[in-house]
Amino acid sequence: MARKVVGFGEDDLRALAGTRSFERGLGYLDAVSGLEAGAGSVTAVVHGTEVYEVELALGGDGGLAGRCDCPFGQEGNFCKHCVAVGLTVLRRAKSVPRQRAAARARASGLEAWLTELSRDELLALVREQIAEDRGLRRRLELRAAAARSDLGTVRDRVLALVDPRPVARYGYVEYAAAPGYARQVAEAAAALRALTVGGRAAQAVGLAEEAIRVLGEAYGEIDDSDGVVGQAAAEVAEAHREACGVARTDPERLAEWLAGQVLGDSNDVPDLDPLDYAEVLGPSGLARLRQLASGALRRRPSGWAERYLMERLVEAEGDVDALVALYAQDLAPSGATHLRIAGELEAAGRADEALAWAERGLRDCAGQRHIDGRVADYVCARYAKEGRSADAVGVRRDRLRAERSLAAYRQLRSAAREADCWEAERGAALAALREESARREHGGRYVGAVLIDALLDDGDVDAAWREAAGLADDRQWERLADVSRETHPAEALAVYQRLAERLREPTGDRAYEHLARLLLRARDCHRALGTQEAFTEYLGGLRAERKRRRKLLSILDRCGL
User: Fold this and answer.
1) Taking every pair of C-alpha atoms in the chain, what is the biggest distance, in angstroms?
2) DSSP alpha helices (H): ranges in 386-508?
3) Is residue 335 a contact partner of residue 364, using CB atoms and an 8 Å limit?
4) pTM (2 decimals)?
5) 288 and which of 180, 252, 369, 428 could share a cystine (Cβ 3.0–4.6 Å)?
6) Chain centroid to CA 134: how far?
7) SS3 at position 553
8) Closest C-alpha among 242, 225, 228 to residue 185
């Protein structure tokens, strides 16, 4: 019934929001107020971190759309606040037709009243509104300045809108202030577009470039975690591009400005893609941009921005050989660039050359312990497709010898099984891991030998027990005990007791939870061995010794210990 009245149901809300946002929206039902239902939309406010305005609109085809000015909603998402308003509408479905009728009557009455007002009365009304609404006043000031061709006022207002200093604290725009600042920037973009539409495109170009400069300089001091400022800055860049097209900006001058933006220090925002301007630049502008990019790359061959600009221009030209030559000038030691070249060649239908480049990547990176694993994956996938399973095993074998990691061992095992040669490969693979240093210091602590992990991963528990002494770390000892406590309860119990002793002193929930897990497993071992009394005595001594650690005792109680 509710769906028939309002045009949507809970399933529609869940589908639009996703399960997580839908469930969170249930918690905001009591935060919805000011609900108003119009002919094709519903508006309300939701009290969350801030007070957010929500509008739900029904399309002509029955589709539902939501708009909310919360950060998540501003990214175009159907947020939890939209869900809360939608659910509130469903719960008040019986009153919706009456509210819609009342809304139509109000709109009709407002239109009739405004029509009856004299010019002076309308002016008084507008003056009253702009006195109370700063945003409305600014928008009307910009319109008035543009209509009068008062470019000085327009310039001052646009630059004031993109200036972050009035909303910054100690020189920094905090997260909570970012949405408000973003709205100002979007307002500036609208003013620039209005200038272009009003026949002042050339002036809009210059003013947009000033605004982009201010934004670029300020962006590093803005907490734009939700990306709202970046999105608004992109609107300014779009207004600039539109103005350039209408004003027929000099292509070479535009190329020089774009190169300065991409290569300059303040190029964080907006994220300009020079190729968006390709139509405006034309052949002469693109040639000038290519010339500038080439010169910049010669001066800084390893510069990220320089390479990005040159790559974008070469990509646009569609010259695969030129792009490969460009990539080949700076090959990453991880093999990532080799793989990128392989991808370009394969996309161009040059599969043999693509494979050759990926194979070269493996050779060039053979001495590196850590490489981009996708290079080996690509080569092995191609070998598998061509029926070269033995060659794929060779690749995985070489990577295991270089990496000595569990991941590399698993990949070799998988490839060797595909080639039906794992039994022949396994011994040499384990020998390679055995050669690895018994313990490797990592991040200030010791990590046990990969050999133990490999044996456990194979399910070879007996071999893991034989190799563990002097090699295994605490994590591996615990895992070894876990997988063998039913078959080797005495050995597993010794491990649990040793690890539990190390946790008698540390404090905190994490340590207490871990200790409780070890004790539960130790109790299982005692039961299997028929020595429950020994466990009861040990546990009683531990509780007496740690009687002042109330959190520990509560966790032990919860676990039945």
Assistant:
1) 100
2) 389-403, 406-418, 422-435, 450-458, 461-468, 474-484, 489-502
3) yes
4) 0.62
5) 252
6) 35
7) helix
8) 228
